[in-house]
Amino acid sequence: MPRMLDVSEDVRAEIGDEEADRLLAGENAPGSYDCTSCRTPGDSGQERTSTVLFVGEETAVLAFAHASCIPSQVVQVAEDQLQGAVRSITGEEPQVPGSAGPEQAVLGITSGLVLIEGELHPALVVEPTAPIARPGTTGNGGDDFLPLLIEQGFLPISDVNQRPSQLSGWSVLVAMGQLHAVLQPGTGGGGPVAWWQAHQPLQVTDGWRAAANKSHTVLVFAAPVGSIGQQPREDLLREALEKAAARGRLVAAAMPLAGT
């Protein structure tokens, strides 16, 4: 039975025309599935369904999602991270190498809901564990984390009550109901690459995931080391964000959920 599948040109190029045609004919595609983004049931015989291909160094995994959640796409991920996703491993809050500095500074990330104009928005707060030096410099105690992000299109935030503007080409990857990566545009017209990537998929709350699926947008805030800290509650996280904004130590951007 034919399925209501969307197979992008990128996915078709990876899996081949023969496999893509079999999927569209319903030979290899499941009827029912759990959406790789929102984790709620879907039916490729009844609703538009996206094919999402996760590609590592040696492993490739074809997943399915509501077309209303994410488009059909190829997502490049690290091999160990992809295998972790397959096993649905959950663990401690990840800390990963950041791409902003030459010393591979570690970025910590926290998820939470932020109230703006009476509506709860899913947010990620990124803070390095050490100052970030500009690539090509030896580092002299300065911190170029915010200038580097501003050069990438993030904007300074003086008021957390104002919604950040959209940052073109960046996206937040939520797959199999967990947070996997923040993606940035690849160089030379290539596909998206991970700016931040979880060692192990990061569990988010049902409320966070529901808000993200509703808006299809995630707000990403970033601050230099020592600006936010690990806050145990969302009200304390909001207070820390407001203090960082008041000191001119906060940048932010809105990113589509798993968009390319």
UniProtKB/TrEMBL annotation:
Q: Taxonomically, which superkingdom? A: Bacteria
Query: Region labeled Disordered — which residues?
Result: 26-46
Q: This chain belongs to which protein, by name?
A: Uncharacterized protein
This chain's source organism reads: Streptomyces lunaelactis
